[in-house]
TrEMBL record:
PANTHER family: PROTEASOME SUBUNIT ALPHA/BETA (PTHR11599). It is found in: Cytoplasm; Nucleus. Keywords: Cytoplasm, Nucleus, Proteasome. Signal peptide: none annotated. This is Proteasome subunit alpha type. It comes from Prunus dulcis. The 20S proteasome core is composed of 28 subunits that are arranged in four stacked rings, resulting in a barrel-shaped structure. The two end rings are each formed by seven alpha subunits, and the two central rings are each formed by seven beta subunits.
Amino acid sequence: MFLTRTEYDRGVNTFSPEGRLFQVEYAIEAIKLGSTAIGLKTKEGVVLAVEKRITSPLLEPSSVEKIMEIDDHIGCAMSGLIADARTLVEHARVETQNHRFSYGEPMTVESTTQALCDLALRFGEGDEESMSRPFGVSLLIAGHDEHGPSLYYTDPSGTFWQCNAKAIGSGSEGADSSLQEQYNKELTLQEAETIALSILKQVMEEKVTPNNVDIAKVAPTYHLYTPSEAWFQSGASPSSSSPSSYTFPIIKETEEQGTWKRN
């Protein structure tokens, strides 16, 4: 089996006798090493929350982008290679703007996801070295269009699914289990934000701080919370010790309850 695998895992478009594309499987495995990202859909909109791994105290936290805007009604969270994600996001931005210019209306979330996955499928085409391998990134695409809020999940194979809630990355197994227990379709947007942050706290190896978590919502327009917006009510200072000053009090509550189980 080892010889068979090495024989067929070099070409990105070469199937093994078992019908497998090993390079795509390797790319999917790479996602499991990435930071954890969580998405939840509610009737009001969609919430995205992502772990930001700050590997050095010399690193500027604001330079680590794990949630990006595609259009004013679509955003995405990522896990995997950030450079690959930027390529996909740039492609999606061009597609949405071309659609808006041509038809005078915003592109639907599903069509945007389809356009993005079409690019993900182009690996190994022709002699273009830039597309000589699958993209090593998975995305959670959140949006709000004429059909209401929606959340899509994509993987390196170019496949996408619509979800009510989904977790990707290194902590996805434990996070998905927690989502199955806590998610219901009647959640409010604020409750979804609280659940997303509490689950991130369970699966992250580092203590949750304003600098190592990104959170955004699409309800109905995209908005990425700044650290001050995400953690404190308007007018509160970071030094405030009042629990009521927290926008998402679950973080304060879980800190008082003790250390969560790591997954």
